Structures are given as C-alpha cells and as structure tokens.
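Need residues for this backbone.
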C-alpha cells in the first residue's frame, strides 16, 4: 500500500463547496487503495483575518497568544474536512499539529521542526483512516507552547510528515498548475516547469516564489521526498521537485522569482575600521533579525555606508537595535527604504555558462530599470530595484532568457 501525503492550500479549501471537492479527491485516493494523510491550510484568507484582528485588539500582541490564535484557522479546516469525508463514508480522523507529533523549537511565528513523532498518525492510518493534520503548527519541545511555522508553513508540515512516514509522494495542491518560469500572475507568458531540482527550487522559494515554503524544500532535499506541486482544480500533472540527477531537461535557467516583502536599511557613514561590521550584525543576529543582501560601499575619508535588506516587518526591531549602536560607534544614522523589491534569476546551468549576469543586467538596462544592489550564488543572480519597477524587471528578464512562451518563435503574419 502506498502512503500519499496531500496538502491543500488556502484557496483549495476556500469555501464549503471547495472543501467538498477536496473531500471527493481525498476519498478517491483512499478508495484507490492508498494510505492517505491530508494536511490542510486555513480556509481562504482566514490567517490574514486573524492577524488583522489581533492587531486591532493590541498594538503588540504577545507572540505566544498570537500563535495559538493563528493555529485555529487550520483547525477549522481539518475538522470540516473530516466531516465531509465521514459523509462520503470514508473513515477519517483529524489531528492538530501537536497531536500529530510535530515538535518544534520555541521561536514563535517561525518555529523550526526539530522532531516528528507521528505515532498517533501511524496508528490511525493502520486502522484504515484517512488522517487529516492541521498544517502550519507544532508544539515546542521546551516550553510545551503551541507554535507556528511561518507563513506558508503548511507546505513544511506536509513534506516533514511525508519524510517521517516515508511516504511515496508528497502532493502539494494549490491554485496554479505547478511551479512556473515566473509568477503566472505577473508574467502572462510564464509556463509550467515539469521538473525542477531541489537546489533550484530552494533558490526560487527563498527568493519569493511562494508556491512552496523554503523549509519544505529543505526537508524534501534532506530526506529525499518526491514533491509534486499541482492544481487542486484539475487532474493534470504538475511540477515534480527532486534530485538534480533525475532531471531529463537541460535548461540553463529555470525561472525568475521576485520578492516585495523586504526593505532596505542603510547605516550612514560608518567608521571604516575592523570590528565595526561584526558589532552591527552580531547585535542584529542576537535579536533574531534575518539579514539578506549586504552591500558595503567604497570608503571615503575613513567612512562608508553599509546597506542591507531584511523583512519589512523587522525594520522597527532593527532600528531599535541600531540607533543606539550608531551613536556608540560614531555612525551618522539609519535610513530605511520600504519601496524596494528583489528580482532573481535562478538556474543550475549558470554554473557552466558564463555571461548570464551580464545578459540580465543588459535586459534591465534596456527596460530602464536601475539596479540598487546585487548578490549572487552559484545558481542565482539577484538584484534590488525600486518597488514600482519590479514587474517590469521580472518581465524583461523573463523575456531576455526566452523563458516560457517568451521563448517560442514569433508567428509570421
Ligand atoms: P497555497 O495557498 O495553495 O499555499 P500560495 O498562495 O502559497 O498557495 O502559493 C501559490 C501562489 O504562488 C500562486 O498563486 C502564484 O501567484 C505564486 N507564485 C509565485 N511564484 C510562482 C511560480 N514561480 N510558480 C507558481 N506560482 C508562483
Ligand atoms: N495558513 C497559513 C498561512 O496563511 C499557512 C499556510 O497556508 O501554509 O500562511
Ligand atoms: Mg502557500
């Protein structure tokens, strides 16, 4: 008997009718003789609604209480789906993340899974049930408090459970047909990729392609889970994510990702002497602030500007850390630019093909887009641009590399 893990995202369970359709699909997979574990997200925009409600009640909601609140969205979905399955005469049991043995660290809002003890899930499966697990949540090993895994975290619940249960496949059902060469909502010519390696998917997800949460891909790679991203609104094949050696295609570039959730912070006129950068960034790290790109300018008169990007929501926290430090080290101050976006080109073929960055910068320049920061990895080139130029930049880069339908020859009149 195969073990299949299926994860349904917010849009896929967005209302009662869609929930019933999900129940039909799960029942079908169960009747085909599989052991089925279903991970559900909160219905539609429930999580956003809960966040807004918390913010309206309190300026700084305690993280512990916020996490308990947010996990309720997934609990609504899991119980409703269990009811729909019972109606279809499919035995089903729902479990919270904690009941399913999703054990995390104690970092509220973006907890990491540290262990999975799926005893109750396995027992319920062995008794012939479809098992439904609330996504996006776990319980802290140390504090025993309920935690959430960061936005989009139900993907990680699903892949982690698939790894722990040694599932044959982890199906991620969403509102698009798979992973595309760019966000199909921004690039109309983007096309579905049939196979993408863990490494490339990791880069795409880390750079803003929110179709999979980054940590779910990390789990997939570390435990060799075959991930199939596909639409809950059709039965067509989606995108397979797996090891690089299984890829049959030989594309140089996989796709373009963008991220508009970051801000750029510049520390002005930092004294250019050893140990200063270390002090600044250690202080930020001690406060759990994640830094992304860093650029230090050439110094003039013994002083230099240091700019870096970070999640926009962490800006106030970063300022609270940096303002007093600037004073101490003799820097002039901190400037925040909220109106930026990051555009990234990802592809394993970059390792062996020179000139990719040059071609990308050329496409941006031809489209009139100014580059503010640059960073690279072996399979990625990223640039920071003005917020209102992100879409133009994504489209220009997508076209320049002939991705998706942009790569098809023009039809003669
Ligand atoms: P779910 O609620 O099912 O988890 P998400 O909204 O988290 O769905 O992720 C799906 C969305 O990701 C799509 O609707 C699409 O707009 C966006 N997206 C961004 N980049 C890509 C990409 N390269 N391929 C597919 N979807 C993408
Ligand atoms: N409901 C959570 C969110 O909106 C988790 C998820 O959907 O994966 O982020
Ligand atoms: Mg998601």
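Answer:
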């Amino acid at each position: 008997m195969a073990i299949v893990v299926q994860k349904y995202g917010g849009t896929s369970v967005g209302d009662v009718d869609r929930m019933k359709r999900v129940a039909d699909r799960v029942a079908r997979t169960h009747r085909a003789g599989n052991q089925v574990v279903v991970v559900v997200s909160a219905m539609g925009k429930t999580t956003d609604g809960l966040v807004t409600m918390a913010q309206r009640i309190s300026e700084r909601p305690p993280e512990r209480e916020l996490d308990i609140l947010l996990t309720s969205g997934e609990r609504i979905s899991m119980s409703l789906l269990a009811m729909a399955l019972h109606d279809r005469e499919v035995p089903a049991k729902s479990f919270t993340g904690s009941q399913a043995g999703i054990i995390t660290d104690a970092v509220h809002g973006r907890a990491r899974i540290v262990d999975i003890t799926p005893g109750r899930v396995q027992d319920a499966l062995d008794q012939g049930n479809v098992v439904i697990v609330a996504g996006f949540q776990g319980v802290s090993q140390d504090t025993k408090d309920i935690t959430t895994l960061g936005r989009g975290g139900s993907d990680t619940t699903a892949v982690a459970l698939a790894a722990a249960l040694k599932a044959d496949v982890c199906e991620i059902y969403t509102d698009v047909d798979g992973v595309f060469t760019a966000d199909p909502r921004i690039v109309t010519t983007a096309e579905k990729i049939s196979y993408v390696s863990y490494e490339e998917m990791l880069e795409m997800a880390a750079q803003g392609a929110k179709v999979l949460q980054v940590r779910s891909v990390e789990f997939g790679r570390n435990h060799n889970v075959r991930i199939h991203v596909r639409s809950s609104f059709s039965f067509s094949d989606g995108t397979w994510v797996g090891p690089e050696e299984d890829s049959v295609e030989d594309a140089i570039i996989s796709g373009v990702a963008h991220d508009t959730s970051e801000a750029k912070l510049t520390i002005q006129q930092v004294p250019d002497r050893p140990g200063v950068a270390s002090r600044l960034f250690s202080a930020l790290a001690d406060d759990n602030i994640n830094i992304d790109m860093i650029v230090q300018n050439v110094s003039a008169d013994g002083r230099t500007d240091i700019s870096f990007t970070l999640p926009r929501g962490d800006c106030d926290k970063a300022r609270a850390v940096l303002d007093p430090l600037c004073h101490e080290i003799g820097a002039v101050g901190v400037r925040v630019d909220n109106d930026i976006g990051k555009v990234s080109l990802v592809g394993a073929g970059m390792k062996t093909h020179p000139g990719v960055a040059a071609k990308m910068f050329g496409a941006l320049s031809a489209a009139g887009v100014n580059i503010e920061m640059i960073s690279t990895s072996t399979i990625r080139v990223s640039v920071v641009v003005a917020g209102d130029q992100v879409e133009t930049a994504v489209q220009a880069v997508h076209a320049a590399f002939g991705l998706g339908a942009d790569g098809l020859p023009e039809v003669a009149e």
